């Protein structure tokens, strides 16, 4: 059964369909205002939460603590640098078989999963090594 969605939820879904990467609730709020479809920031957050519980939107927390939202079309995997915040998408999924097993074993409906590794990118490693050698 398809859930009835509010006009606000539909506007947010339509906006997310046009974005290539995750976007913050604040950016969604600003972009909707720019499109003359403004709504309150609290409404943006409530709508995102409802869409997330429906399995249509996924949330990812960046290294800086900011939450970004995107359509839950596919599983997302990243290498994220703790220093500069750069995030590199990883296309292979080592957890797919585990997801299927967990879904069957626990009778749990999984909408999506995320897998994220945190560390230092090449540039930040070089900078860190250079700083350490000057100390």
UniProtKB/TrEMBL annotation:
Residue positions binding Fe cation: 113
GO MF assignments: DNA-binding transcription factor activity; transcription cis-regulatory region binding; zinc ion binding
GO biological process terms held by the UniProt record: negative regulation of DNA-templated transcription; regulation of secondary metabolite biosynthetic process
Cofactor annotation: Mn(2+); Fe(2+); Zn(2+)
Cofactor details (free text): Binds 1 Mn(2+) or Fe(2+) ion per subunit. Binds 1 zinc ion per subunit.
Chain residues that bind Zn(2+): 81, 84, 121, 124
Keyword Transcription in record: yes
Ribosomal protein found in the keyword field: no
Domain of life: Bacteria
Keywords (A to Z) from UniProt: DNA-binding, Iron, Metal-binding, Repressor, Transcription, Transcription regulation, Zinc
Similarity annotation: Belongs to the Fur family.
Protein name from the UniProt record: Transcriptional repressor
């Amino acid at each position: 059964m398809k859930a009835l969605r509010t006009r606000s939820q539909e506007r947010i879904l339509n906006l997310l369909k046009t974005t290539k990467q995750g976007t913050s609730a604040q950016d969604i709020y600003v972009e909707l205002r720019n499109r003359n479809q403004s709504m309150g920031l609290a409404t943006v957050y409530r709508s995102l939460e409802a869409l997330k519980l429906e399995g249509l939107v996924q949330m990812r927390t960046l290294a800086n603590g900011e939450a970004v939202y995107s359509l839950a079309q596919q599983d997302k995997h990243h290498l994220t640098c703790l220093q500069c915040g750069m995030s590199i998408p990883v296309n292979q999924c080592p957890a797919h078989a585990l997801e299927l097993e967990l879904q069957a074993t626990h009778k749990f409906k999984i909408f999506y999963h995320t897998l994220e590794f945190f560390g230092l990118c090449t540039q930040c490693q070089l900078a860190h090594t250079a700083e350490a050698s000057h100390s």
